[in-house]
Write a structure and sequence with these properties.
heterodimer; A: 338 residues; alpha/beta; Rossmann fold; 8-stranded mixed beta sheet; globular; B: 343 residues; 4-stranded antiparallel beta sheet
């Protein structure tokens, strides 16, 4: 039990919009144990970033958050005072954002911001904080760390800034790191390096890591467990091997078919596509959220909400009433059932 | 230090040697003067430094490299938006310098990365797609409308979107508008600068399929600039790898992916993360920093990050080596340099 860092049960996030209520996250559940990397993957607007922000209690003011359970190290983090949250944030849990330029303060030096992260939460001297900052900058692969402390964010490249963000998140030795698209703004070569580093640090500091991304390649390579989100819901969850080795939800399968893989997809051949568009999340959707784009849809799919159910192979869960049938049938195009 | 050797890989015999390349860059260099701060002398930055690239009619050439390697500067020169500092550019056999901008635009068109910022938010879809027709002139309003509708159908945009504004469209629809605008004057060549990197994967595959269909149906030639090597592998016949202003390896796609020769190409290929679980995140061994282009490393410009560097790499500039396997600029494949280093 002591290994459980984060529990999220039935998380709901909604936002008032002119045309009603936007149900951005609808009952998402997952947990993170020490040393695990949980990836939340999905396309724009699926609710993955709001899920991350709601764990940190950093949602926009007008958003409403509710959950059956939301606990960090066994303590509830929903319905607690802002002071309590401020003590946890950047301390027991830290966040790394996509664009390191906008999340670092341009008016303060790197050193100042790194030290601040520790001084806010611990009774240590500035000299001690500086020592730790240098140590961590070196650990994340930044050379000449002492000189870097005196530099401002604009003097660093994107890759270096993201390394600084990672070092900053590590200052207090948090139990949980939430990284929202940490490598999306970076070059592929730098992306591989940053992910390599994150995975290494996570093992070394024995933290839990929640990684939010739209990149299935990244997820397959780094995740312990995966939550595939579509239109506010988790549609498939399981280990990376389960979800990528034997995807069971038509959406997950569809996504994987869209991606060219050197050596597997043939040059010039058509890639898979998912026709149609993500449904509006304003108001309630009857039945399966993916029904409008699914090749295997039948009337029952639209009749009632579809539960996220365990498959016979245990931890692997899927929100599709036809998952078993489709799996047995090898996901053949389904003209016959139309 | 002339590196003007014949680097253009020869067309395999049999493909109509008579037709000139669609686009040709010969020893093209572009230099910028960069401010070093108040009262300090400006410094030259060679964004593109002696590039040779030749694209045959109907070919798809992929151009890959990290940000800041000069991909976009090269693309801008090929579009005639910026003159080279030296070297020459030819389009369909004619020199590009001296050609009127409007004539260049009739032959080559761009599709940019971000369909959110490359479309005028105050113009309707129909007006955006029709603009190149109005620029070239000689088309009546009715004719324009007809051709815009034709083009919208070709790229898979519903007719009812004619009067919509970009803000009412999804990312994929916007990129279709950008493609329709690029193709309405029936150019021979399209330069796609990261055409799908701002899009979701399910939309990316639709746009890539569309680009393939259009190429086949309209006989287009593409230069595809991308940092996504999986996309390049899927689309391109030939790939040029750029590093700090130079093309360091150039060969056909299969050879490049099966047998990358330049250590930089190897590192790039390693960093392609395909959705295959259990493979982990590879260590590219590239080191942390991309060098400052104002302070170009001596010798081979890649040597500070290279895992396979040896004796002469930090002193001697590698020359382009052309063989059946393509072109590579690396001492590892230069027998003369290796012999000398061993001696």
């Amino acid at each position: 039990m002591s290994d459980r860092i984060l529990t999220v049960e039935g998380l709901e996030v909604s936002l008032p919009v002119p045309s009603g209520t936007l149900n951005a996250v609808q009952g998402v559940s997952f947990h993170v144990d020490r040393g695990e990397t949980v990836c939340i993957v999905g396309e724009s607007g699926c609710g993955k970033s709001l899920t991350a922000l709601s764990i940190m209690d950093l949602l926009p003011k007008r958003a409403r958050r509710a959950a059956r359970e939301l606990t960090l190290l066994g303590e509830p983090i929903v319905g607690v005072s802002e002071t309590t949250m401020a003590d946890l944030r950047g301390n027991r849990m830290a966040m790394i954002f996509q664009e390191p330029m906008t999340s670092l303060n341009p008016a303060y030096t790197i050193g100042n911001q790194l030290e601040e992260a520790l001084l806010r939460h611990r009774k240590v001297s500035r000299a001690k904080a500086r020592e730790r900052a240098i140590h961590l900058l070196e650990r994340v692969g930044i050379t000449a760390a002492e000189q870097r402390l005196r530099q401002y964010p604009h003097q660093l490249s994107g890759g270096l800034r993201q390394r600084v963000m990672i070092a900053m998140a590590l200052m207090t030795g948090p139990d949980l790191i939430i990284a929202d698209e940490p490598t999306t703004a970076l070059d592929v070569t730098i992306q591989a390096q940053i992910l390599h580093l994150l995975a290494e640090l996570q093992r070394e500091f024995h933290m839990g890591l929640v990684l939010i991304t739209h990149d299935l390649g990244v997820v397959a390579r780094i995740a312990t467990r995966v939550v595939v989100m579509y239109a506010g819901q988790a549609v498939e969850t399981g280990t990376a091997a389960e979800v990528f080795g034997a995807p069971r939800h038509p959406y997950t399968r569809g996504l994987l078919d869209c991606i060219p893989i050197p050596g597997k997809t043939k040059r010039g051949e058509r890639l898979g596509t998912i026709p149609g568009m993500v449904p509006s999340l304003v108001g309630q959707i009857q039945g399966c959220h993916f029904a409008g784009r699914c090749n295997y849809v039948i009337d029952e799919c639209r009749a009632a909400p579809i539960p996220l159910e365990a498959t016979p192979d245990g931890g692997h869960k899927v929100r599709c009433i036809r998952a078993d049938e489709l799996m047995r049938g090898g996901f053949q195009p389904a003209e016959s059932v139309a | 230090m002339s590196t003007t050797a014949a680097v253009r890989p020869e067309t395999k015999a049999g493909t109509g040697a008579a037709a000139p390349p669609m686009l040709e860059a010969i020893d093209v260099t572009r230099m910028f003067m960069v401010s070093q701060g108040f009262m300090r002398a400006k410094k030259p930055l060679h964004a593109v430094n002696g590039v040779n690239l030749s694209i045959r009619q109907g070919e798809v050439v992929g151009l890959v490299g990290e940000s800041g390697c000069g991909k976009t500067t090269l693309a801008r020169m090929l579009l005639g938006l910026m003159p080279p500092s030296s070297g020459s550019l030819k389009i369909d056999g004619q020199p590009l310098t001296g050609m009127r901008r409007r004539d260049v635009a009739r032959l080559v068109q761009p599709v940019f990365q971000d369909p959110y910022s490359s479309l005028n938010p105050r113009k309707s879809v129909g007006s955006i797609i029709g603009l190149p027709l109005r620029v070239q002139g000689g088309v009546s309003g009715e004719e324009e409308k007809k051709r815009v509708y034709e083009m919208m159908e070709l790229v898979g945009l519903a007719r009812r979107l004619f009067d919509n504004y970009p803000s009412q469209l999804s990312g994929g629809q916007r990129q279709r508008v950008a493609i329709a605008r690029a193709l309405i004057n029936r150019p021979r060549m399209v330069i796609c600068d990261e055409p799908t990197s701002a899009l979701d994967v399910s939309v990316q595959s639709q746009i890539l399929n569309l680009l393939q269909d259009l190429r086949r149906d309209l006989g287009l030639t593409y230069l595809l600039i991308s940092h996504n090597l999986a996309v390049v592998e899927h689309m391109a016949d030939r790939v040029a790898v750029m590093y700090l202003g130079r093309i360091v390896e150039q060969t056909d796609t299969d050879t490049l992916f099966r047998n990358p020769r330049h250590p930089y190409t190897e590192a790039l290929l390693k960093s392609v993360l395909t959705p295959e679980p259990g493979l982990g995140v590879p260590d590219t061994q590239l080191g942390a920093a991309y060098p400052n282009p104002l302070n170009m490393p001596s010798g081979c410009r890649f040597h500070p990050r290279c895992a396979r560097r040896f004796g002469p790499c930090d002193t001697i500039v590698p020359r382009p080596l052309v063989s059946a396997a393509g072109m590579v600029e690396c001492h590892l494949y230069d027998d003369d340099v290796k012999k000398e280093a061993a001696a």
